[in-house]
Amino acid sequence: MKGPGAELKGSELGLERDRERRWIAGVIGTLSLLAALALGLALALSSAGSKWRADFEGIATIEIPATPDPARQAQQLRDVLDILRLDPAIETAQALPRERAEALLAPWLGAENVRALPLPTLVDARLKKGVVFDAGALESTIKTAAPGAQVDDHARWLGGFLAVARAAGIVAVVVVIAVGIAAAGAVGFATRAGLAMHREAVDILHLVGAEDRYIARQFARAALRLAFVGSAIGTGAGAGVLAGAYMLATATGALAFPLPTLDPLGWTILAAVPLAATLVAAISAYATVMRALARIV
Amino acid sequence: MKGPGAELKGSELGLERDRERRWIAGVIGTLSLLAALALGLALALSSAGSKWRADFEGIATIEIPATPDPARQAQQLRDVLDILRLDPAIETAQALPRERAEALLAPWLGAENVRALPLPTLVDARLKKGVVFDAGALESTIKTAAPGAQVDDHARWLGGFLAVARAAGIVAVVVVIAVGIAAAGAVGFATRAGLAMHREAVDILHLVGAEDRYIARQFARAALRLAFVGSAIGTGAGAGVLAGAYMLATATGALAFPLPTLDPLGWTILAAVPLAATLVAAISAYATVMRALARIV
Amino acid sequence: MVSFERVGLRYGLGPEILRDISFSLAPGSLHFLTGASGAGKSSLLSLLYLARKPSRGTVKLFGEDVTAIARRDLPPLRRQIGVVFQDFRLLDHLPVIDNVALPLRVQGIADSQVREHAAELLAWVGLGDHLNALPPTLSGGQKQRVAIARAVIGRPRLLIADEPTGNVDDRIAVRLMRLFDELNRLGTTIVIATHNMQLVQESRHPELRLDGGALYQTRKGAA
Amino acid sequence: MVSFERVGLRYGLGPEILRDISFSLAPGSLHFLTGASGAGKSSLLSLLYLARKPSRGTVKLFGEDVTAIARRDLPPLRRQIGVVFQDFRLLDHLPVIDNVALPLRVQGIADSQVREHAAELLAWVGLGDHLNALPPTLSGGQKQRVAIARAVIGRPRLLIADEPTGNVDDRIAVRLMRLFDELNRLGTTIVIATHNMQLVQESRHPELRLDGGALYQTRKGAA
Ligand SMILES: Nc1ncnc2c1ncn2[C@@H]1O[C@H](COP(=O)(O)OP(=O)(O)OP(=O)(O)O)[C@@H](O)[C@H]1O
Ligand SMILES: Nc1ncnc2c1ncn2[C@@H]1O[C@H](COP(=O)(O)OP(=O)(O)OP(=O)(O)O)[C@@H](O)[C@H]1O
Ligand SMILES: [Mg+2]
Ligand SMILES: [Mg+2]
Predict the structure, then answer these.
(1) Which of B61, B179, C23, C55 is deepest in the core (most CB within 10 A)?
(2) CB atoms within 10 A of CB D36
(3) For every residue of A176-194, which 3-state class applies, written as one string?
(4) Is the distance from CB of D118 to CB of D149 less than 8 angstroms?
């Protein structure tokens, strides 16, 4: 038996003892996990996007096809480099050493065989900032010197990647909003169930002169407690998954994606998930009770 | 107000009106979805395994490295084919046309350049059924005729794939068992909550002479109903996801995995998921009530 | 029929509410159980209707020692006992007629028979036009009469009533007493806990009085 | 203080339980409300303690027309009314002392003050040694006294009691009546619904009798 003063202020409804409504912590936890993963992924993609853009924006690659005649190919390279040096949009241009191309083919043909092979020549050109670069026009010019040469300014795949990152960001925002709505809905449902369960006690509180907001506060407090526990665990699990993925990625070197482990903004956004979930739950519970009570005498 | 005779037999506890415990349908649904996906994936891998085994088991591939001298390479091929014909484990052996190798390299070097290149020669050997094939020994023999030649009986990667498929099967069984335990646990929890909620009504039933199993039956029936609805929806969603994945895979041609859409055993196993879930829920509820009631006077 | 031997009862670690209670009730008798509020009347009755076991001593019912009985043998015994609880204990979500039918229903008796019987009984306690009302829509006295109908529908050998006239006026109280008398004449053994001393004094039936945890048998009488 | 003007009440689509009831209660009066079981006593009281609104007519309380009042203005009115319910309506999971303290608690009054006051009141109704008991462990009469303590802790201007002596013996009934008398002398207006005609007849206070949905004011008397 509890001694006097042993009970919490505002526990008249005994909501904290309802085991039936603890599932709401699980629901909020799952939703928080989802939100954390969506946000984490979006942040990872956006940070990877910035990095890749820094690496590849402003660089164009020119490929001069292989010819059986090495002297002719060397002449073509010289002509191309001359053209590039005259182009007002290009800062510097440099042929890649032959070894890079050899390394790519060695596994197929044997290193020895490759050495004797005619290979295409690759040229990296660094673009000037702020000057418009027209890859198509340059390619036409270069083709006069080296037929079959190609100019790739990486814009297509970088643009594609950035579009994917942007889309992922939008999806993440949509997921977070959907998760928020689902959480509010689940809390609303649980709160209505709680009101039904405690209808008699609520009536008693009313009859002894309690105001609606007094009762609503108790439900909000109970929802807040459950949501906080659930969302803290869910977000923690999500952060764990993200950190694990990061470690796996760096350990295997499989992924070129830098994950936002040290991006303070990213962590702040993740940390805000449980706070937002808790707030959403408390407000939803409060509003649900106020609305439901307004409908009874 | 209900008319006489309007109520269901055995509804004295009014369990079917408890909205608070409907979450259990959601939990069972999610678990069923998990089980369906795990089973579906395992069945898909196992059926893909059989197909790949049928395709690749019994075939070995011999690679004779490229040499700058085509005549020498042709002689090596003839010698290797002779060796293969004499091998008691080999049924037939056939050199792959040079076009296959050319097609692989054309994008890199240009189709024109490739035609002039020395390329490795590939030989497919069909193995005799029931005769032990020793790839290592054959490789040693062949190397005397063609230095650097390699024999690949696909055993390593096929074995790896089959091991993965077997592991996936085990994981699926573990998942299904875990899901069953989780479902039984959730139903047990919900049932104890329901007993607590209806403690007074349960007391009344006892005092008017009801036996424990009379009360347990009501809980089992309520759990059965919720579990059936939940698991039917969950399994249906799982089957939908599997079917969708199959259609996507066939439409894009991206996956070599044949999914078991038409395997009657697979569909039977999937269809058993909701039945098993329903049974588990009903038994768990019944047992929980019997155990809990045995502890009160 | 009923016999208590040196029965003691305490709740948890509290003091003994009942101390060394010994008495026996003859089949077909009717006894009043009186005593101040908190004297332990409801507690003693709860031993009789097998809701709890005594802390010590022996309780025998229909010749069986119920303190030693196995759990699974309780239901058949309970079906021979009808109880009117002080707080009614009706199932709020079931119509009155189903509440009354409950004791037969849990025995698996066919609904059709049960409902007819329940409807008759409800008419008999003056609630013939409330068959399908839900308990929360009834007045206090109406609930009490539903509780009485439920207690007697199983034709119990032992009928226990805790304060059955607490919520009704004297006219209905008298009518209920006549009803109990009638059941008693048909052979039912009855124990009625009550504060209504007028009722006790006007009746020819004996009184058991609880005081300080002990039981005093006053007016050894008719039964 | 209280006035009813041509008040009617029906539940749902049922018949009118109360028909054309008009009366008024002077401040500081004490009235008994009598009538057969099911006559509508509890229903009439529920109009008084603002649990429902009448189907027609006007109910005025403390000079305000409560049939027209906004929902948010109800709590302050209810705090001036104390109610003892026929079925007690205690919160089973709260100790007795917290149940009694409830009406002050919901007003936001500091716990320390509230508990002392509640403990005093419980001693006054004879439950000084049950402060921390939970309601399910109390006897019927003990619960009734907890309910009375809760009804009066807020020093209500109007006290409404539904069958407050239904579960206690005559000795405690008399003590409770003295308690009501005392509160009445201190200025509280009181309405007591009861079946205990002896109590009514022995008292100098007037009686309101419900019969067939109509109210009869007998023994216009002392108040
Ligand atoms: N479940 C319980 N746990 C603890 N104490 C209890 C419990 N039930 C009853 N008591 C205590 O036992 C004592 C006797 O209670 P009981 O209900 O038997 O009295 P009663 O004679 O029926 O009173 P009343 O006339 O008021 O109904 C009381 O002091 C009460 O507080
Ligand atoms: N919530 C409700 N819904 C429908 N009918 C109700 C409701 N409450 C009471 N009644 C009906 O109204 C009538 C009067 O009930 P009420 O409880 O006011 O009587 P009462 O005078 O207090 O009786 P008692 O002395 O038995 O307590 C009864 O016939 C009852 O069935
Ligand atoms: Mg009692
Ligand atoms: Mg009443």
Answers:
(1) B179
(2) 18
(3) HHHHHHHHHHHHHHHHHHH
(4) yes
Residues near ion ligand 3 (CB < 5 Å) are C 42, 86; D 139-140
Q: What DSSP letter does each residue of chain A carry, written as one string? A: -PPTT-SPTT-TT-GGG-GGGTHHHHHHHHHHHHHHHHHHHHHHHHHHHHHHHHHHTTEEEEEEPP-S-HHHHHHHHHHHHHHHHH-TTEEEEEEPPHHHHHHHHHHHH-HHHHHTS---EEEEEEEPTTS---HHHHHHHHHHHSTT-EEE-SHHHHHHHHHHHHHHHHHHHHHHHHHHHHHHHHHHHHHHHHHHHTHHHHHHHHHTT--HHHHHHHHHHHHHHHHHHHHHHHHHHHHHHHHHHHHHHHHH----PPP-TT-HHHHHHHHHHHHHHHHHHHHHHHHHHHHHHHT--
Mean pLDDT to the nearest integer, D172-181: 88
As a whole number of angstroms, the distance between CA C217 and CA B72 comes to: 125
Closest residue of chain B to C156, computed from CA coordinates: B208
Mutate which of C9, C11, C85, C208 to test ligand 1's pocket (most atoms within 8 Å of Cβ)?
Answer: C11
**How far is the C-alpha of C33 from the C-alpha of C208, rounded, in Å?**
5
Sign of CA dihedral A226, A227, A232, A238: positive
Tell whether the torsion through CA atoms of C152, C157, C161 and C164 is positive or negative.
positive
Mutation for testing the B interface, residue in A23, A189, A192 having most B CBs under 10 Å: A23
D213 pocket-lining for ligand 2 (C-beta < 6 Å): no
List the 265-294 stretch of A: residues with Cβ below 8 A of D: 294
Structure-block tokens of residue C109:
């008796």
Measured CA to CA, the distance from residue D115 to residue D131 in angstroms comes to 10
Name the residue with the closest Cα to ligand 1, atom 17: D139
Q: What is the pLDDT of residues B43-61, one digit of tens each?
A: 877 777 777 777 777 788 8
State how far the Cα of A131 lies from the Cα of A148, in Å rounded to an integer. 26
Output the six-digit token pair for B95.
Answer: 């050199």
Going by C-alpha positions, the residue among C118, C82, C81, C114 that lies closest to residue C100 is: C118
pLDDT tens digit sequence for A93-120: 888 887 777 766 665 566 666 676 677 7
What confidence tens digit (pLDDT) does each residue in B257-297 have? 444 454 677 778 888 999 999 999 999 999 999 999 988 76
Return the bridge partners of C218, or none: C207
Task: Let me know: does A168 contact A52? Beta carbons within 8 Å.
Answer: no
Residues C125, C116: Cα–Cα separation, whole Å: 15
Residue type, B224: L
Chain D residues whose C-beta sits inside 8 Å of any chain C C-beta? 11, 34-42, 86-87, 137, 139-142, 145, 162-163, 166-173, 195, 197-198
- Percent of chain B as helix, strand, coil, to the nearest 5: 70, 5, 20
Out of C79, C111, C134, name the one closest to residue B209 (CB): C79
| A8 part of contact set with chain D, CB < 8 Å | no
- C2: helix, strand or coil: strand
**Residue D43, ligand 2, Cβ within 6 A:** yes
> Is some CB atom of chain A closer than 8 A to the CB atom of D150?
yes
pTM of model > 0.90? no
List, in sequence order, every residue forming a beta bridge with D216; answer none if it has no partner: D209
Residue D136: strand, helix, or coil: helix
**Smallest CA–CA separation between D10 and chain C, in Å?**
12
3 state SS of C4: strand
Which ligand is in closest contact with the Cα of D84?
4
Mutual orientation of helices B23-56 and A23-56 as an angle, nearest 10°? 50
Place of tokens 């009984």: C121
Residue B8 Cα, gap to closest chain A Cα (Å): 22
Cα(B108)–Cα(B113) distance, integer angstroms: 10
Q: Which helix (H) or strand (E) holds B74?
A: helix B70-86
Measuring from atom 18 of ligand 1, which residue has the nearest CA?
C40
Residues written for chain C: 223
Tell me, what's the ipTM?
0.71
